[in-house]
From TrEMBL:
Residues 1-145 form the N-acetyltransferase domain. It comes from Streptomyces lienomycini. PANTHER family: ACYL-COA N-ACYLTRANSFERASE, GCN5-RELATED N-ACETYLTRANSFERASE 2, CHLOROPLASTIC. Its EC number is 2.3.-.-. One of its GO terms (molecular function) is acyltransferase activity. This is GNAT family N-acetyltransferase. The keyword Plastid does not apply.
Length: 147
């Protein structure tokens, strides 16, 4: 399907994993090697990939169990395509794909709450997490330290 000169795909086998890895560095969502992206996208129930011509400019995924809970993760947009609504379109597409789940959750980088609020997300009062590097997650504002 094409939307505003973008071609959308939901198939990991149609994506160059090296290009996907570069997109995550540029977005910037960190260093995610191709083999890691193959695993996390391969294990995700819903995926979105967006191309402008031959260039991968957006991606996102959602883990889901099919009924109760879906989790939107790793929404990345190429810097030259940010601020044009593509990130919102990716999140909306993932919300559509996960429609019917009792709850759809995500965690957001500090400062992005208004963006997600405009897409219908509300703050959770009971969300908690175990992080592989809790000190870094606290330092970057993703987790609150216990008092």
């Amino acid at each position: 399907m094409t939307l505003e000169n973008h071609t959308w795909s939901h198939r990991l086998d149609e994506v160059d994993l090296e290009e996907l890895s570069r997109l995550y560095l540029l977005a910037p969502l960190g260093d995610k090697p191709p083999e890691v992206l193959a695993t996390v996208f391969g294990n995700s129930r819903y995926t979105c990939f967006v191309h402008a011509g031959d260039v991968l400019v957006g991606a996102g995924r959602a883990l889901a169990d099919g009924v109760d809970c879906a989790y939107i993760a790793d929404v990345a947009v190429h810097p030259e395509h940010q601020g044009r609504g593509l990130g919102s379109d990716i999140v909306r597409r993932l919300l559509e794909l996960a429609d019917g789940h009792k709850k759809i959750i995500l965690y957001a980088a500090p400062g992005t709450e208004d963006f997600y609020r405009r897409l219908g997300f509300l703050h959770m009062n009971t969300a908690m997490a175990v992080w592989s590097d809790p000190r870094r997650a606290v330092d970057t504002g993703l987790l609150r330290p216990e008092e």
